[in-house]
Amino acid sequence: MHKKIIMPEIKPVDENVIMIGANLSLEFNKKDKNLVLLKKSGVLMKRFDLSDKPAKKLLVVEAVELGATKYKLSEALKISRQTIHNYIESKKRFGTEGLLGRYNPDMGKNLEKHSKPTQKNRIQGNKAIILAEARKAERIENENKQLKLDFEFGSKEIPKEEMPFNALHDWKETRFAGIFPYLIVLINKNQWVQLIINHFGTAYKIFFVFLLMFARNVRSIEQLKNVHLKEAGLILGFKKLPDVKGIWQWFYSASILGRSASLCKKFFRNNICCGLVNEFIWFTDGYLLPYTGKEKIHPGYNTQRKMMTQGQTNQVTFDITGRIVDFKIQEGKGDLINHIVALKREWEEVLQETPIMVFDRECYGGEFFNILIENKIPFVTWENQIDSKKLNKIRDKEYSNKFELNGKDYKVFEEEEEFIVEEDQGKKSIKLRRIHIWNQTNNRRTCCFAWDAGKNLSTVQCAEAILSRWGASEYTFNHTKERQPYHYHPGFDTQKSENQLIQNPEIKKIEKEAKEINKQINKKHKENSKAQENLNKDGSRRENSKKARLEAEIKALEKRHKQLLEEKKEFAKEIDVSRLEDYRNFNTIDNEGKNLFDFVTASVWNVRKELTDWLFCHYPNKKETVDLFDAITECHGWVKSESEKVVVRLEPLQQPSRRMAQDQLCKRLNVLRAQLPTGKLLQIEVGTSPIKKAIYEKSRK
Hints:
Elements: E1 3-5, E2 17-21, E3 24-28, E4 35-40, E5 43-49, H1 53-65, H2 70-77, H3 81-100, H4 111-119, H5 127-147, E6 169-174, H6 180-190, H7 192-200, H8 205-215, H9 229-236, H10 244-255, H11 260-273, E7 281-290, E8 299-302, E9 307-319, E10 324-331, H12 336-347, E11 356-359, H13 366-374, E12 379-382, H14 388-392, E13 401-405, E14 408-423, E15 426-439, E16 444-451, H15 459-467, H16 476-480, E17 494-496, E18 501-503, H17 505-530, H18 546-570, E19 574-576, E20 587-589, H19 592-616, H20 625-633, E21 637-641, E22 645-650, H21 656-671, E23 681-686, H22 690-700
Parallel strand pairs: 7-11, 11-12, 22-23
Antiparallel strand pairs: 1-14, 2-3, 3-4, 4-5, 6-21, 7-9, 8-9, 9-10, 12-16, 13-14, 14-15, 15-16, 17-20, 18-19, 21-22
Helix pairs in contact: 1-3, 6-7, 6-19, 8-19, 11-19, 17-18, 19-20
């Protein structure tokens, strides 16, 4: 039974109307763009004159309080998001009078008289300085949170000569200088070096090598033979990287310790506790890690080839911004259903609220939906086995809500869907929200189900959630494979698996026979529908007629089909192959090395997202932001190691706008004041060759 929910219709917007989120819009006057109307679902709320700066501040604050998106608001009003943040913080700390700078259009000349009684209660001083100090205090607080993390493995101290950037040297040239921003942010945001040193001691060096591989798109350890080892070692803090054989020794000295599980758990816990990943929506999906070795392992599902193939499944969770939250490698096809529930239970202690879980059709079913509801896990997922013909018959006017996502136009409306679930006490009914989605760009229609656990998500928000990482916006790891193969597995090793269960072969035989009988029954029914009834002279039915014969055959086939179903119940669904003589035991792959590699991949990918977001504020062409960041990471440069700091100088980019963005990024990195465990400060700058300059000055003398 479907109960339709009618949502208010939002009129299509023109070029003078800009949507800013939460059904809010700014309607600009065609003749005077300074005159703007703030509307909610098409209803006028307030008028503003943008030429009046205090009025503009009020518009910004009121719009954000009503739920407007800061990014969309900054685009509409042509102001930065930092300015919006300052306006909001000013009102919080200094009140409306502090925000407006002692100006109020309704009070006019009487403002001074009105403000005297409240002046003593207001914070005094320069607002910009106070807000800057508040941001600094907040940053220090976040850093202290990270420094208080409990590291239980590894020695607290390693020999000084084993620490990175221990050797002192003057300016030296390196073609890998562009990867230094990764290291600065990892040390500042994640206490990355301290984390791996406390877990692995002197075996930490392989993580720096993996960082180099990800940043410069080196596809495997073997391909490091094509890297200039001395220049790569300089930027990583070593005199020189060893050859490939020596790097493999670094790898095995770390993986043999078996500490990847603890390392990943502490790292992801740190990200959640310190707000480095978003907690509103989490996307989870499985990715096949193929195996081509000789050992027998459980098969996984290859989506591209649509068949089972030997391999494992990496269950990856990431947030709305594309930052990786967590990953787990499972045997064979994996179990995404139990992984969703386990994900909430694992991190619920450090989460302020349960994120909305978004996943694919693999987890579809009333029983699973009931488990999520009982565990109070909000979710959004695709509907399985959609009848496209029925969807196309729905009238266009039913789609009442319109929005745009990833350059495509969508319309949606909502219904209610009921699922019947069988329990020990009997049958139970659960109701979910069924969201109809019409992609107007390619004229396709589909549906999704949602349960928001009281979060009051709108129809559009549910649709945006399911569309945010599928379709035009593909999964995070499908983007990372362009830079690093996420299925790369350094160091394969196998051992006997604890899971030796397979589907009972006898059940397979019965199911195959039952399927063939079903086909025969359907064929006989079609013949019977076309056969004519033959009657005797007295009007009775002829027993030897074709129709009577077909009905007898159908009855016999149905009896056999029912008999097969009863036989199927007598067999166990799964059997242990270790007890059979004709079957080889299943093996499981040792994922210790894979976990170490994926830990670096995940942490560096998150830093990449952070740095590209910073560049977004300093470069006018948004479509080229990622390309600009890649250009910066490919820069050659020079490195100098002093007793108190390490300085890296990047060669300047040629285009002025890119050069300015490059310079601003370096300045922002220097503000972080990242330090190595030894106390050395990491600094980065942009400039010409210091070596040529020194030679020139020496020649002049």
